[in-house]
Amino acid sequence: MDREHTCCFTGHRPDKLPWGADEGDPRCIAVFTQLTAALDRAYESGCRHFICGMARGGDLLFCRAALDLRDRRPGVTVEGAIPCESQATRWPAAERQRRAELLDRCDFETMVQHHYDWNCMMRRNRYMVDRSCRIIALYDGIPSGGTAGTLAYALKHDLTVDIIRPE
User: Fold this and answer.
1) Of these four, 10, 65, 69, 101, which has the most CB atoms within 10 Å of its CB?
2) What CATH number is given to the structural domain containing 53?
3) Does residue 132 form part of some domain?
4) What does the mean pLDDT of the chain come to?
5) Angle 25-26-31 (CA atoms, 0-180°, nearest 5)?
6) Is the pTM of this model over 0.85?
7) Would you put residue 75 in left (φ > 0), alpha (ψ -120 to 50) or beta?
8) 74-86 pLDDT, tens digit each
9) What pLDDT is attached to residue 151?
10) Phi, psi (5° rounding) for residue 77?
11) Is the per-residue pLDDT at 1 higher than 80?
């Protein structure tokens, strides 16, 4: 898919989200509703391809919402961008299973590199931004960490930004 029709996502892991990993929490449900609305806005702006980094927390929420969008709207594809083969190795079993189920439903799966190194997450983030015209961010405003870095990179590359606060 071309860049003009692609949207990617960045967001926090459970340790930075007020609901942690509990997707049944009312705050998480409210954020999922906001993600759904942000995806609808991206679709209305012309985006048809959605890239997710497949990390714990916000990424898996986004993936689920993008797959829901695909079920509701024509022409949507979803890509799981994986930083390395061992991304989920140390995750809790339930989250590994959920990630695997979501990846199975994606239209595309891209392995950015095979082996883990200190830079693979940033490479994955740049892979997504470099292929997108728009980014949706689940971002608390703290100017450090992977989400902040990905947003800064996206802004430097003139992506349209849609920020959802996790509160």
Assistant:
1) 10
2) 3.40.50.450
3) yes
4) 96
5) 100
6) yes
7) left
8) 999 999 999 999 9
9) 97
10) -125, 150
11) no
Total of domains in the chain = 1
List, in sequence order, every residue forming a beta bridge with 52; answer none if it has no partner.
80
pLDDT > 70: percent of the chain: 100
Quote the domain boundaries for residue 95.
3-139+150-164
- The pLDDT of residue 23 is 92
**CA end-to-end distance (rounded Å), the chain:** 33
Alpha carbon distance 27, 21 (integer Å):
11
Q: Is residue 144 included in any domain, yes or no?
A: no
Q: Look-up: residue for tokens 């703290």?
A: 142
Long-range contacts of 122-128 (CB under 8 A, 24+ apart): 122/146, 122/149, 123/83, 124/53, 124/81, 124/82, 124/83, 125/10, 125/53, 125/149, 125/150, 125/153, 126/153, 127/81, 128/8, 128/9, 128/10, 128/51, 128/53, 128/81
pLDDT at 167 over 90: no
Residue by residue, DSSP assigns 91-123 as: S-HHHHHHHHHHHHH-SEEEES-SS--TTHHHH
